[in-house]
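User: My advisor, Dr. K., asked me to get a structural model of this assembly before our group meeting. I'm new to this, so sorry if the format is off. These are the inputs:
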Amino acid sequence: AQTVTQSQPEMSVQEAETVTLSCTYDTSESDYYLFWYKQPPSRQMILVIRQEAYKQQNATENRFSVNFQKAAKSFSLKISDSQLGDAAMYFCANYKLTFGKGTLLTVNP
Amino acid sequence: DVKVTQSSRYLVKRTGEKVFLECVQDMDHENMFWYRQDPGLGLRLIYFSYDVKMKEKGDIPEGYSVSREKKERFSLILESASTNQTSMYLCASSPSMNTEAFFGQGTRLTVV
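Assistant: The format is fine. Below is the predicted structure of the whole assembly, which you can bring to the meeting.
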């Protein structure tokens, strides 16, 4: 089975600071997508950002960006200028929609 | 906007009951998924379907079955509910493989 590993069960960050959430994955494919999802306390899961493996450039969506290291099979999420509304569970997922165990992000005012 | 609707947000059932969790999507997506979410375990795939009447077992199918008679609807069935099936259940759909999934609001099922 293809695995997705998030090694940080919990993280905290000060408002306006930057935080990086880690994710590693396992695949034998050469071309695939990877995803980060956010689940706020309201529990509606929403897509944060998507990375295509064949693209060299790291994906960016406003304050959210990824650091994609294909050879290392690493796909971390960087949140810049953290806001209180960023507090949520964050899940990394592979192209088969296998999810990691999640990282609970707390944002401190 | 894609909408994935789960029939109930909260459900309480008795041990041994047959339980149906319904999920409907309105974007003509090929793929539909049922996940179970438990603290510390993330989302675990129960079943998925890539077409009408087609289904594939996920990582934890034991104790569950599914039905997809129409493209827009994917039902999860607990044949005989047990207390260890108390959990949050999430339904999702996606247009095709290798694309993002859209999720419903989740159903918190308690089996007593």
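One thing worth pointing out at the meeting: Chain A is about 0% helix and 50% strand.

User: Perfect, thanks a lot.
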